[in-house]
Design brief:
Elements (H helix, E strand, L loop, with lengths): L7 H22 L3 H22 L6 H12 L6 H13 L4 H20 L8 H12 L19 E4 L6 E5 L6 H17 L6 H15 L6 H14 L4 H6 L5 H7 L1 H12 L13 H29 L3 H11 L8 H8 L3 H13 L3 E4 L6 E4 L2
Antiparallel strand pairs: 1-2, 3-4
Helix pairs in contact: 1-13, 2-3, 2-5, 2-11, 2-13, 3-4, 5-6, 5-9, 7-8, 8-9, 8-13, 11-13, 12-13, 14-16
Length: 375
């Protein structure tokens, strides 16, 4: 059972959400495999980008899409190690930590999307394995990746404009208390996620309690958000499970990250509690309900973008691919002409089409104008 009793107002809203999920499910069923594949990729890239940027990584979705394409074109397990120098040369070495975080997050989410069924019942070994994968490309984490924390840690919110830091949560101390809390949490999750009628509420409590424990030295936020997605797959709700691959939940958490941290603090009063019934989880339940609803609306945006791509001329597609191969750059018309070999007037017409369809954005005016991908 949940640690809190949802109000009638929440249950009424959940019934509305269930109706939206059913409608979205029917819409997705009618789409071609190519279109659903495109929508999933958009959501996948957005989730990676948002989840890592919440933790202060600096890569854009365009750069992450390029990394994903680069690694997908090289199917071995050692792809990142072999491509690391090439990727860093493209994106500049000052982004090395962000690249390592992105690739780790990409691996964890790939596992969640492709192997969710195999990861139930959820075990501590699985959670530790996902954490190891999350940090496996960050050499400095080799001593603690996949292992529970051995030193105290805290959840801190940083105001990047003022530099002010605020402790959102003082988690459980390392050692037996953390180990016991994780055992209790996974046991509770496995007996609740598929039996309770509103799986999103179970997912919300599960992730909050995981964050309140903060069992690992680093990477808890990214892993917690991946576990939320995994919980939706484990829900047993046909509509929710089927739609989860096509929604960018983390993108909307990123857009509301200040509220997110505020609610985490509100739920716990800033402290880990061994008695989880003392948490005030209803605000977080509302937060995730709203996040899920807004995520559903993205599907129409992705569909429009897909349909716009299908209508592009050969020259416009060539120009767009020119940007995708250089996601870190803002390109002028002359550079595009040189790179593609397409006549200047044709390039200008293609750029006009691509900006009108919001696939590219224009920066500056006149001769100094540059263009950049929109994702």
């Amino acid at each position: 059972m949940l640690s809190f009793t949802p109000s009638q107002k929440i249950e009424n809203r959940l019934k509305i959400l269930q109706g939206l999920l059913a409608e979205t499910y029917k819409d997705l069923e009618a789409l071609s495999p190519d279109e659903t594949k495109y929508i999933h990729r958009c959501a996948f890239i957005s989730n990676i980008g948002a989840s890592t940027r919440i933790e202060n990584a600096v890569l854009t979705d365009q750069e992450i899409e390029w990394i994903d394409t680069t690694l997908n074109n090289h199917g071995k397990a050692t792809a990142f190690e072999e491509k690391k120098s090439f990727i860093l040369d493209k994106l500049s070495n000052d982004k090395e930590r962000s690249v390592e975080e992105v690739v780790g997050c990409r691996q964890v989410l790939t596992t969640v999307y492709l192997q969710a069924d195999e990861l139930f019942p959820l075990s501590e070994v699985t959670i530790r394995g996902l954490h190891h994968d999350l940090l496996r490309y960050y050499p400095k984490a080799s001593s603690y990746a996949g292992g529970y924390k051995t030193a105290p840690n805290r959840v801190v919110s940083i105001n990047h404009e003022t530099g002010e830091k605020r402790v959102v949560l003082a988690p459980s101390p390392p050692g037996i208390i953390t180990a016991t809390a994780m055992t209790e949490l996974t046991n509770w999750y496995n007996t609740t996620i598929q039996d309770y009628p509103w799986a999103i509420l179970v997912a919300a409590e599960f992730v909050f309690r995981f964050l309140a424990i903060h069992p690992f030295q680093d990477g808890n936020g990214r892993l917690g958000r991946a576990l939320f997605i995994l919980a939706l797959f484990h829900s047993g709700d046909k509509y929710l499970t089927s739609i989860t691959p096509y929604i960018a939940i983390d993108r909307h958490i990123e857009q509301n990250h200040t509220l997110y941290y505020s609610i985490l603090h509100q739920c716990s009063e800033g402290r880990f509690k061994a008695d989880h019934t003392q948490y005030k989880l209803e605000p977080l339940a509302w937060f995730f309900i709203n996040i899920l609803e807004s995520s559903l609306a993205d599907i129409e945006i992705y569909r429009k973008r897909y349909n716009d791509l299908q209508k592009l001329s050969e020259s416009a597609s060539t120009v767009l691919n020119c940007f995708r191969s250089s996601p870190e750059k803002r390109l002028k018309v002359g550079a595009i002409v040189k790179k593609t070999g397409i006549p200047r007037r044709t390039v200008q017409y293609a750029l006009k089409t691509l900006t009108k369809q919001e696939l590219l954005q224009i920066l500056g005016r006149g001769a100094g104008s540059r263009y950049q991908l929109v994702f």
